[in-house]
Amino acid sequence: MIQIYLRSIHCHEETDEVGADEPYVLVTAVNLQPTRDAPPFEVVSYTFDDVDDEETHQAPGASRSFWSTTGRPATLTDPDSVIFVVSLMERDNGKPDVLRSVVKGVVGGSLLGSPSASRADRVAALLRDVDSAMGTPTGFPNVDDKVGLAELRFTRDELRRADAGEAVRVSLDINGDGGRYQLTFEARNPGWQGFELAPAGSVAVAGGLAAVSRIPSSMELWYVGANGSLHDRFWYEGANWQGFELAQPGSASLAGAVAAVSRVPGSMELWFIGANGSVQDRFWYDGGGWSGFELAPPGSASTSGAIAAVSRIPGSMELWFIGANGAVQDRFWYENAAWQGFELAPPGSASLSGGMAAVSRIPGSMELWWIGADGSVQGAFWYEGNPWRRYELAPAGSATPASAVAAVSRIPGCMELWWIAPNGSVQGAFWYDGEPWRRYELAPAGSAAPDAGIAAVSRIPSSMEVWFTGANGSIQDRFWYEGATWQGFELAPPGSASGSGPIAAVSRRDGSMEVWFVGANGSLQDRFWHAG
Fold this sequence. Notes:
The chain has about 525 residues and is mainly β. Helix content is about 10%, strand content about 45%. Among the domains are: about 190 residues, Immunoglobulin-like (Sandwich); about 140 residues, Fucose-specific lectin (Neuraminidase), CATH 2.120.10. Strands 1, 4, 5, 8 and 9 form a five-stranded antiparallel β-sheet that branches. It has a four-stranded antiparallel β-sheet with strand order 3-2-6-7, with helices on one face. Strand 29 and strand 30 form a beta hairpin.
């Protein structure tokens, strides 16, 4: 199911008219898939004002689609099953809506007059008839001028990629009446949608962000406010997002991480780095309010460091954080016992601003990764009845000092991990039970911001999805299905995200994913997807 629409128009050179151009575009879309003689069609218009040389103007985008011909998403896999004719006019005293009606009438006659013609003959007839209709005067004394027209085509592969979620763009150059224009069209599956969850200036642009889904009909999200407060946003199916302040201004480090787990459906636990380098704990049980305590005293944690947590069994939680001295600290809890802890890696082991991720692929095991002080990627694992053991997954210089880390275990016998390399590439590593770790490049050099956020989920055992902040402030999506290669698309355009902000994601049920990121303007952005 895809939509196709005009994304932008770029003027290389204005037409010969006096003053700035006022171009408008008419796109004729014909659906040849039905077998009846008169195929459905539509003519969609786009108007632009005050266009000068070397200016780019954005079109309305997906809100004004010409595929399908009803304006709604529809299946399109064969490029020969449609015809798109793009006409460009320069407005003087004419009326674009009137010309649109004229063109629509001419197109209807052209299609009725060629019921058994081949596609190529129908395209030729449409180009001829639409070109003729463009010369119809719709205003006086100065009639509108014809710039030109062309057929727009997407390849079969481009349509496939668009259906998979990639925003696929195709450009047309149309020249005439002294003007030179480039029109860019976009095809994509509109399954992803989004909104602003918290307004500009609300969020610390480098602060922590964490989310859980404790039951399929609910999600909860926490973030550090621009004033060092900690905010909670929660959602229940059938209701709007709501929220409150969980910790007052000045409580949280503006660059510290946040982590959360839901060990049982009726409970959530949250940790964040205090402004004073403490580690703060907040917990909630169904039917009660939030409570909290200080898990580690002031000066214990790096104020720009990471936190990771898992709940491998309902009666236990484990938490890790970067110490102020670069050590890796472990804190663990078992039901009916107090929190305990130890030093997992000595001082100088971890980057003070690097990321950390953990998974529990089976109830009797946990695995943890962090960015080393030397830019390495370090790992540690635990099996019930055995002590923790450490290893180096990637050597010194493999990761940026402030790289985030994301990990999933999509099936019990597999783990996958991602981080940002110094050259701006996104690196991945995967492990299957009984085999060594293997590495690969998920996105090439220059793709990611050096301090980029990264998050991942596995909504079903045969799929994984990863999001990271692009070098241009975009949010990039990469997805994988078993038996296929990694693919990807741009989820949010350049300039959308803070270059040093985190990303959080959950999959509350098999057919849904939700992603949050910090906007470049300090807002909190939400993007969500539902299957079908």
